């Protein structure tokens, strides 16, 4: 069962953006795997943040006002290159049958206000705002219907789906420092990673750890077994048994694990722990190239089991060498004076030609993201 009751069968099928951060306009069909490729500062993180924003609309203690405010307000979200009308617009299609639309701006006091909100099921409109109640009381437009349980009954499945979205960017130092755990659930940086494992039912936890063991043997051949433990203060730990010349091997805790091992364990656990879309930024960090090449296959196998949509940004040629990655799964981001353009690799004839000639996806798309200059000058010419 998905977190907060979200259906395991839902996934994003499309997204339409206007005036969102780097993107003046974007229209994309989305697959179960999404690979974002582009230069630094082109908007890969900002694209993933669209889905984090939708999650924040329905998160506990969140809502529309908090979701906008934590991003610096409407003026920070609105694309600098945008022209009138300047409302920020997000429309998403959700397989198999839903569509949700929201656009917003700010009033004279810089307070975020909903300009349009609508939900559809199987093409039938369930509601549209502003409605007559909103026109009588404009204060209502400071909240979405999505975040109101008394208003979202007919489309609550959308809210539950948005709440299942998870962003993950494991910081190994936070995992190792168990004293810094503050009780925050599903910390995107891994502060509660060990607590999440320990709080999982024993049967489910052991089954997941066995699967993670199997995957980790590719990356860490000496690691033969992993298990959970608690110290004298009740703090959770994870232990790994490493084989070496001693017949009994040796146990290490997360404090001795490499950054790469912890990040990979975090990725594997997150992929198994939920059913909603999983958002990853540069999952290749700290990992050996040979392991990175294995990630797309790993995600594909997990998706067959959990049917979880995965969206990730990457700069890694190793990750993009996998022959199973399709041209409709890879999106190229191209900055310009009119904002960042984002298009599937299938839209570029040169990419298709290079792939047809036998080149890998990495060889076909990554040269298109390189800086124009051959070198980055460290010292100005005199």
Précis, in short:
The chain is α/β, with parallel strands linked by helices. The protein contains 13 helices and 15 strands.
Question: What does this protein structure show overall?
Answer:
There is one protein chain. It contains 13 helices and 15 strands. It is of the alpha/beta class. It has a domain at 1-164 and 323-371. Strands 2-1-4-5-6-7 form a six-stranded antiparallel beta sheet. Strands 8-12-13-3-14-15 form a six-stranded mixed beta sheet, sandwiched between helices. A hairpin with a 6-residue loop joins strand 14 (330-334) and strand 15 (341-344). Helix 1 (44-58) packs across helix 5 (156-163) and helix 8 (202-219) packs across helix 9. The model is unreliable at 1-6 (pLDDT under 50).
